[in-house]
Design a protein that fits this description.
mainly alpha, 3 strands, 368 residues, 13 helices
Length: 368
Amino acid sequence: MSLIPASLRSFNWAIIALVVALVGFGLVVLYSASGGHLKPWAMSQGIRFVVFLIFALGLSRIPESLWKAGAFPAFAGVLLLLVAVELLGAVGGGSRRWLDLGIIRLQPSELMKLTIVLAVARFYDLLPAGEIRGVNALWPPAVMIGLPFLLVLTQPDLGTATMIAAGGIVVVFLAGIPLRLFAGAAGSFALILPIVWSQMHDYQRNRVLVFLNPESNPLGTGYHITQSKIAIGSGGVFGKGYLNGTQSHLDYLPEGHTDFVFATMAEEWGLVGGVAIIIGFLLLCRWGLRVAARAPTRFGRLAAAGLTTTIFFYVAINLMMVMGLAPVVGIPLPLISFGGTAMLTVLMCIGILMSIERDGNRQHTGFS
C-alpha cells in the first residue's frame, strides 16, 4: 500500500519536474543577466514561479465539466475587461494594456489567450455534427476571435493579438471545418490587410519593414535583432561560459532579460543550451498533444490541443523573433523570460491540461 496520498499521486510529477527544470534554467540565465546577482530579476522570478505553480496545481483539481460550463462566461468577462482597458486602462511604454487594480496591474489580453481557446472549443462541442460543414460553423467563431483581436490590436499589441487569433483559428481548424471555408476566410482577411496596415503604429510598420530588410536601419529599429544575432552567433556550440557573456553584460543587447533572454542564454551556453531549452518545450508540447489525443470528450480534445498550441506559439514566435525569422512583436520566452504575465498564462494552460488529463485518466480506469 502506497504511503503517498492519492491526491498527490494524481499529479503528473514528470511534467511538474520538466517545468521546474525549465524555470530553474531560466533563473540561472537571469542571475547571469543581472551580472551575477539575485536581484532584481532572479529572486523575484523564483518567488513568482512558486506562487503561480501552486495556483496552477489548484486549477488542475477543477473538473473538466466546470471548465466547459464556464467557457462562455469567462470569455464574455475577459472581453468586457478588454473594453474597460480601452476606456480606463493604464498607459505604460506608449501602450494601453493594463487595468490598475491597486494591488496588481491586470493585463486582460493575456487571459484572452486562454479563454478564446476554451470558448471556441465549447462552441464546437455544442455544434451538431451535421452542421460542421456549413457557414454557421464558421461565422460565430470568426466574430469571437475578431472582437478581441481588434481590441488588443488597438492597445497596441500586435504580438498578443496575433497569438489570440492563432489560438482560436487552431481550434477552428481542428474542429473539422472544410478547407473551402478556410480558404474563403483567408481571402476575406487578405482584403482587409491594407486596413490593418493603415491602423498600425509607425513603430509597428517599421518592425515589419526591418524584418524584411534588417540592414536598412541597423542602429535604429533594427538594432535589437542585429545585436541578438551577434549574441547567438558568438556563442558557438558550447558558448563563452557562464557569466562570461559580453553582449548582455556590456548592455549591447537590449531587453536581454525579457524578450531577448534566449540570446543572452545562447551567448553563454551556446548551441547546447539552446537545444536543451527547445527539447524541454517540445517535450511539454508533446505531452499536451497526448492529453488532447486521449481526452474522452470533444471539448477536452479541442481545448487541450488549443492550449498546447498556445504554449507552442509563445516559444516559436519568440525564437523566430530573436533569430530574425519574424518581426519583433514583444513575445517573451515563457518560463525563461523575466515577467509574470507569460509565466502565469503558460502555467494556467498547464494546470487546465492537467485537469483534462486527470478526468481522462479517471474515465479510462473506471473511477468517477
